[in-house]
Amino acid sequence: MVHVFNRDYNKDPFIVIWELTRACQLHCLHCRAEAQLTRDPRELSFEEGKKLIDDIYEMDSPMLVFTGGDPLMRNDVYDIADYAIKKGVRVSMTPSATPNVTKEAIEKAKAVGLSRWAFSLDGPTAEIHDHFRGTTGSFDLTMKAIKYLHELEIPIQINTVISRYNIDVLDEMAKLVEELDCVLWSVFFLVPTGRGQQADMISPVQHEQVFTWLYNLSKRVKFDIKTTAAQHYRRVVIQNKMRENLTDRDGINYEDALMKGATGTIDGLGRAPKGVNDGNGFVFISHIGDVYPSGLLPIKAGNVRETPLAEIYRESPVFKSLRNPDMYKGKCGVCEFRFVCGGSRSRAYAMTGDYLESEPFCVYIPKALRKKQEQQ
Predict the structure, then answer these.
(1) Inter-residue contact 35 to 26 (CB < 8 Å)
(2) How far is the C-alpha of 75 from the C-alpha of 329, rounded, in Å?
(3) How many other C-beta atoms can be found within 10 angstroms of the C-beta atom of residue 322?
(4) In what order do the strands lie in the sheet with 184-189?
(5) Burial class (CB in 10 A: 0-12, 13-18, 19+), 361
(6) Which residues of 326-354 are buried (b: 16+ CB within 10 A; e: fewer)?
(7) Angle formed by the axes of helices 232-243 and 204-218, to 10°?
(8) Do residues 102 and 110 lie in contact, with contact meaning Cβ atoms separated by under 8 Å?
(9) Ordered DSSP codes for 182-236
(10) DSSP 8-class letter at 37
(11) Quick one: 319 exposed, middle or buried, by C-beta within 10 A (0-12, 13-18, 19+)?
(12) Terminal CA-CA length for the chain
């Protein structure tokens, strides 16, 4: 087992997301990329992609995720994957459920060595999912693709965006994820960027309720749960573990972990051992090589055509400030959970225009502020 504290996020990311293309046949309501039907001629070429993979590998070989748009809209996607896997990089892919996802396409991916596929399911029924994806038939195509993956014995991850459209059917959703025999349920919480609208989001109180529900669910299901743009879920997990007086499976005391930002162990499922946040253990490269702290935090820090990725990640003032929780403002800046949580920097930016502001959808009041209120 890899020890939890050995990757320095100031130097190397835990995960790199590369948007291979913005082309996609779906019209999702929340699409960060505001995807388009055709490919952009300015996309990074195969040769540029190989150089980027070399640079990624040199950063202590983080996980690499191909996303889009729809990565299958690039006909060289398997060549790029083959190059990365032969180099020794762990690669997974999040294609869109379109007619591109044939059994042959999945067989090709398996032959190349893609370790896992992730598909989006945003509702337990076609009606809810297809509405969210803006495309009739998307639910049925997703189910068909999952059936192919099972036949080919490829592990499946399901991605779900929590919104006001599905908050009332989460029990049914969890049941479906279980029935589909997935290894990981990756639960995304909406950030109003791209096509995502504030009106589609759930409330701060509902966030807290869903976190508690997820924690209780995690104790009784066989699939693992990971959250995205919900850094404060880590606080809920730690609060519960501390209440239950539990230590991590590697014997780490959660109170100690709090100060070091650790949340668990590297487990092969793509969950980070310590709190990943935008620009802190996480980096996003757009289809044209622009580098951002994440796909949901659209502040450009450089371009890989001009500057090596490692230099942008390590030296950019934007990235450096995001890796310093003491620079956070408001209650996030004084919160005892700031090293392990830190709030969603992308949601703070989307709602306030300042990525160092407090997480606007967190209801927790830090100890320091409670003390102040008592004194007053």
Answers:
(1) yes
(2) 45
(3) 26
(4) 224-228, 184-189, 156-162, 116-120, 91-93, 63-67, 15-19, 282-285, 290-292, 302-303
(5) buried
(6) eebebbbbbbebbbbbbbbbbbbbbbeee
(7) 50
(8) no
(9) -SEEEEEE----TT--GGGSPPHHHHHHHHHHHHHHHTT-SSEEEEES-THHHHH
(10) S
(11) buried
(12) 48
Q: DSSP for 135-184, please give it.
A: -TTHHHHHHHHHHHHHHTT--EEEEEEE-TTTGGGHHHHHHHHHHTT-SE
In tens digits, the chain (376 residues) has pLDDT values of 233 346 899 999 999 999 999 998 877 766 666 667 789 999 999 999 999 999 999 999 999 999 988 999 999 999 999 999 999 999 999 988 888 889 999 999 999 998 788 999 999 999 999 988 888 999 999 999 999 999 999 999 999 999 999 999 999 999 999 999 999 999 999 998 877 788 889 999 999 999 999 999 999 999 999 999 999 999 998 888 888 876 555 455 555 655 555 554 433 444 565 778 999 999 999 999 999 999 999 999 999 999 999 999 999 999 999 999 999 999 999 999 998 899 999 999 999 999 999 999 999 999 998 888 888 7
The pTM of this model reads 0.90
Using the structure block, give the residue that is written with the tokens 């790029």. Answer: 80
Identify which of 214, 232, 229 has the alpha carbon closest to the alpha carbon of residue 351: 229
Spatial separation of the C-alpha atoms in residues 12 and 23, rounded to whole Å: 29
Cα 340 from chain centroid? 16
Gap between the Cα atoms of 344 and 260, Å rounded: 18
**Host H or E run for residue 65:** strand 63-67
User: Are residues 345 and 232 in contact, defined by beta-carbon separation less than 8 angstroms?
Assistant: no
CB atoms within 10 A of CB 34: 14
Copy the structure tokens of residue 207: 């966030």
Cα 220 to chain center, whole Å?
23
DSSP state of 45: P
DSSP letter string, 70-101: -GGGSTTHHHHHHHHHHHT--EEE---SSTT-
And the tokens for 4?
Answer: 């939890």
What type of residue is 283?
V
